[in-house]
User: What shape does this take?
Amino acid sequence: MTKASQAANRKTTIDPNEAAHFGALAADWWDPKGSSAMLHKLNPVRLGFIRRQIDRHFGTEETAMKPLSGKAALDVGCGAGLLCEPLARLGAAVTGVDAAAENIAAATVHAEQSGLSIDYRAGELAAQNLDQFDVVTSMEVIEHVTDPAAFVAELAARLKPEGLMILSTPNRTAASKLFLVEAAERLGQVPRGTHDWDKFLTPEELMPLLADAGLEVIAMEGIAFSPLSGLHLSSNKALNYILAARHSGRV
Assistant: This one.
């Protein structure tokens, strides 16, 4: 079976309404005080976890400027490139895929202005003619897709046998409903309609999906908030959590 026929037989995961919602925010994505302000605050926290897992998984020194030199990275649901650009600066050859063409257009312009060469693509991951990658990331995306199991399987299919996957997503708890949905949207920290709390996945729900895709979780931390520390990595996973996974060798 050819790659094209395999892709045709795969399930679609893009929700058109979700793609339209985030595509409408494209022009504002890189404004740290705009509609994506929360992502700008969240990104350094996620990057701290990602860098630590890169060093641990690939055996790179924490002082190395480009620990991903010679490696390829894929960010799925990349938006306008908030994670793609730091991955490129860490030395990776980066590909970013997003459901919204408007986001890809904004990402392409910003990367060019930043002097970075990033391969951006719009549409379904399954429809992209892509090889496998050393690093696959997907930040706050799985709660927006139509079929989380199919989405995880597609991510796993793009990961090299010895590669590293990083995922983050909100947890479905009373705390996340209060703070991420009710408070954050009402206070304008995130745009109205960004979150559907019923689609949030708990760690207990996500881990079997990863296992079914032949992946094993090797690290997991919460992303918490406090008035003194702001957003930070924590053992408390009530609001949001981020995890690292690798191929388990079992399918």
In short: The first strand starts at residue 72 and ends at 76. Residues 3-247 form a domain with the Rossmann fold fold (CATH 3.40.50.150). The chain has one domain: 3-247.
